[in-house]
Amino acid sequence: MLEYSLLYPLNTETRTALKLDGMWRFALDWKNEGDEKNWKNHIPGHDTIPVPASFQDFYTDKKIREFAGDMWYETDVLVPDYMKGSSVYLRFGAATHRATVYLNGEEVAYHEGGFLPFLADITDKAKFGESNRVVVKINNELNETNIPCGLTVTLSDGRKMVKPYFDFYNYSGLQRSVYLLSTPENSIEDIDLSYSVNGKDASIDYEVRVKGDDDVKLSLYDEEGHFVTEAKGRKGIIIVPDAKLWQVRASYLYTLKISLVRGNQLIDSYQMPIGIREVRINGENILINGSPVYMKGFGKHEDSDIVWRGFNIGVMKRDFELMKWIGANSFRTSHYPYDEEIYRMADREGFLIIDEVPAVGLFESLANFFDAGTGKGAKSFFSKPTIPQLLKAHMRALEEMIVRDKNHPSVIAWSILNEPESTDANSLPYFTALFEKAHELDKQKRPRTFAMEVNSSPTKCHCYKLCDFIALNRYYGWYILGGNEIDEAENKFRAEMDEWKALHLGKPFIFSEYGADTLPSEHKLPSVMWSQEYQVEMLEMLHRVFDSYDFVKGEQVWAFADFQTTDGLMRVNGNKKGIFTRQRQPKDAAFLLRKRWTNLPLNYKC
Ligand code: BDP
After folding, report:
1. What was the pLDDT predicted at 421?
2. The pLDDT of residue 1 is above 90
């Protein structure tokens, strides 16, 4: 069980959540002297930087952009007097990849893992009614003992440089909001919910975790704010008469209000939007509220101009509008859990999310994304001595993700890894531990999967049987037999699909990635690779194959928008497989997808 509550920060009758976003002081620790020189008390220099944002691309100096090591953030926070007597925390939405937090020079938290929230308990250390100095040391190095995996090398001039085993830029810093939180000492810590629909009614099976021994009361309100029903006790069942269900692209959100009471006194109060819906896999179908759905959508990134991987509320809005325009109903949070606001928006807009833990780069290659796409195999990653430590970090991230995201109706599945080396026999115990943990942590027992690269074929993969549905990343027509060999690619793809079919797994398959790099500037008739015409042709070929297999129940194209990667021969200032440009304008393929997806019925092939 996590040592703190990951409930989304809210202001209620009993709680305060103050955002500390804005310009923070900032210093890069070039000489690795910050610890020795006590930067925890005050950092040197006059530079300031926005929070939330990635630090890298603001600067015009390449050495700053490519900095690897410790970076220090600082701000002064007035902790209001009225918080005295409460539990007080600093809450970081994410600090990439590891952070040490100091309050008035004293360490109050250490957290590893760059894409999930953590809390620093400052109840006994804060000076109330006065200014408190918050300093955060963040380290952005990559290694093989934490996810995502990569290497950090030292260059001849002594500078460090990261070598990601993954295909996205190693953006880092305080990329999500920071809050000053206060909650009552006795407080609501967590809640688990699961749903079942019985005819017109629904029942909500709940369990509230509480600090202290006060009584728990729950009240349910409909979308108009009208009272529906209530319940008492830490555990129980709420019957919702005439329940309005949360449906794909037609959401309905109730508000669940949870109170902690002592007699007539209100001790703590928290509320959350909830959507009543069931998720089940039945044979080759993915069922939402008992009805089969075909998933249409994207693999995405948190990536945009100007604040990079930092959360940007405007970009979020634009992305949802584009996804609605194109007829999508789902996305995967490749390759890390996204900002909490995105899940809240998906709840409201009725999108389905495959929530992915940042387990990418678990592959014995410096260019996993490329080698994997070509089918170049490797088979020793899970035999490395670092594996026990990596598994520990992976388990922790999985737990944080599930605890944070389990109450979003939009989250319908967990993706436990992306393109791991599942051809290594030692991968099986590693995967099994994680798959079991996901079920143990999730009251709703959502389906679990991992996104499989092309080596994870029926004959070579040791782990696909653990998946409740199969998620394939396939690049036929791009890394495999591209351009003039596209017909060969189609044949080869069909041959692989026939192999899967022959296994009669009786499970749904989705394509969690497929796509072609495309420069928005390039047009060519007849097409060549990288032209807009080729992206359209290749998608048409792949869709033809998807349509020939009834067990294929979803397609999430790679990628939603162009995004930044590390420098390299294979990338033209980033990955250009976007259906939209990085500025969120459509390439030609967007119109093809819009035509297809707005015409495919939700229960396609069922
Ligand atoms: C897959 C990876 C993804 C890459 C993509 C690509 O899962 O992160 O960006 O290929 O090569 O291997 O475009």
Report:
1. 93
2. no
